[in-house]
Amino acid sequence: MRKLIITMTVVMAFCLTTNSALAGDANDTDAAACAITASVDQIVEWEGPNIPAIGIAAITSQAAVPDSNEVFTLWVNCNVNLTADNTETVARLAHASTGDYLVTKYKISTDQAGTEGTGTGATTGAVDASSSDEWTVHSDFLKAEVTAPLAITHIDNDGAVEVTLYVQASNDMTGQKEVADAGNYACTQTITATWTSD
Predict the structure, then answer these.
(1) 159 inside domain
(2) Residuewise pLDDT in 10s, the chain (198 residues)
(3) 161, 121 in Cβ contact below 8 A?
(4) Strands in 117-182 per DSSP E
């Protein structure tokens, strides 16, 4: 009888030990890893819908050639071309009522122009090919048939380029015009960025 009691005690102790292990120790941990992926499409995006308006100082003499500019950011992670609107009735400064016009010239630059390999922008070759650093009449500005679009080269880890648009106004001194009609003149220039390659 004594032997039987001892045997039962051993079995009960075993069962208690086993149940404790199944319940888990408060200090036990287990980790599960989750593989996560994401992707980024080619992005060509101006910082806003419109470049800030450019106001040019008044022309106060026949020979006056005032100009002004504005800076706008282009977010980009690929190579793009910049082109301009060359439409005479849109991109040339015209009088609000008389139909007279001003000689309207443009040029454009980027903050990394000529600094090959150091940041997103136009290379020296791209600037030369497009004549983007020279005053160009509205009808020829960044026009493929005349010069070339301005090529922007993307450099990894630099997803923004500061683009500066310059505008110049002057009297048309050809023929008998000499000076334009007094009053206000207006036009709209649209710069389009187009994907070319990754």
Answers:
(1) yes
(2) 333 333 434 444 444 445 545 555 677 999 999 999 999 999 999 999 999 999 999 999 999 999 999 999 999 999 999 999 999 999 999 999 999 999 999 999 998 755 566 789 999 899 999 999 999 999 999 998 898 999 999 999 999 999 999 999 999 988 777 899 999 999 999 999 999 998
(3) yes
(4) 136-137, 150-152, 160-170
Looking at the structure of the chain, the number of domains it has is: 1
Within 8 A by CB and 6+ apart from 130, the residues are 122, 142, 147, 148, 149, 150, 151
Residue with token string 């649209």 = 190
Residue 160 to residue 170: CA distance in whole angstroms: 33
What SS3 class is residue 166?
Answer: strand
Task: Give domain status of residue 73, yes or no.
Answer: yes
- The neighbouring-strand residues paired with 82 are 150, 193
* In a domain? residue 162: yes
Looking up tokens 């470049």, which residue turns up? 51
Question: What tokens does 64 get?
Answer: 């006056």
Asked whether 91 and 85 are in contact (CB, 8 A), the reply is: yes
Domain span at residue 123 reads 44-197
CATH number of the domain within which 110 lies:
2.60.40
Would you say the C-alpha torsion 138, 72, 50, 76 has a positive or negative sign? positive
